[in-house]
Amino acid sequence: MIPEEMRSALARKAASAESPREQAIDVMFELQDHYGYMTDEAMEEAAGILGMTTLELEELATFYDHIYRSPVGRYVIHVCDSAVCWMEGYQRIIDYLCQRLKLTVGGTSPDGLFTLLPVCCIGYCDRAPAMMINRNVYGRLTREKIDRILDRLIEHSQFHEME
Ligand code: FES
């Protein structure tokens, strides 16, 4: 269950929209940040806040690549598998990520930190191959650049664990 303060803030946000549906994705993102993914409980809470049915929300959730209905790692890596990235080395990037993080596409690393998913074009075609991690976009990927990005995220997560 989400804290009352959070529920009130989300309810105000929903009420400020012409139609609650406009706020559905934002509300689900906030609940997802709270729960780690959109649990059934989170879906019911979102439905209550937005005045929508869970079925309506389910339809939206399945349409959006960034709403997760099952557990994911702290960092979700979406690697673009559209045409330009494909030509510019998608497979090389995917293979390296799988090897480095010890996972397969669609899976989560053994330490629970990373989930790897393919995604359609993220608008970084001029900087292909590209990927997105938790809504941050990275382009012109090389093994070295991927190592730097992942090392920073691992370091960041260790720092937070110590807090
Ligand atoms: S094709 Fe990959 S970002 Fe557009």
Could you characterize what this model shows?
GO terms for molecular function: 2 iron, 2 sulfur cluster binding; metal ion binding; NADH dehydrogenase activity. Belongs to the complex I 24 kDa subunit family. It comes from Syntrophobacter fumaroxidans (strain DSM 10017 / MPOB). This protein is of the alpha+beta class and 163 residues long. It has 2 domains: 4-63; 75-161, Glutaredoxin. The chain is 51% helix and 11% strand. The protein is built from 7 helices and 4 strands; from the N terminus they run H-H-H-H-E-H-H-E-E-E-H. It has a 4-stranded mixed sheet, with helices on one face. A hairpin with a 2-residue loop joins strand 3 (131-133) and strand 4. It is globular and about 45 Å long. It starts with a helix and ends with a helix. FE2/S2 (inorganic) cluster (FES) binds next to helix 5.
SSE diagram, text form:
Blueprint: H1 4-16, H2 24-35, H3 40-50, H4 54-63, E1 75-80, H5 83-87, H6 90-101, E2 114-119, E3 131-133, E4 136-138, H7 143-162
Parallel strand pairs: 1-2
Antiparallel strand pairs: 1-3, 3-4
The chain binds FE2/S2 (inorganic) cluster.
Organism: Syntrophobacter fumaroxidans (strain DSM 10017 / MPOB)
Keywords: 2Fe-2S, Iron, Iron-sulfur, Metal-binding, Ubiquinone
GO molecular function: 2 iron, 2 sulfur cluster binding; metal ion binding; NADH dehydrogenase activity
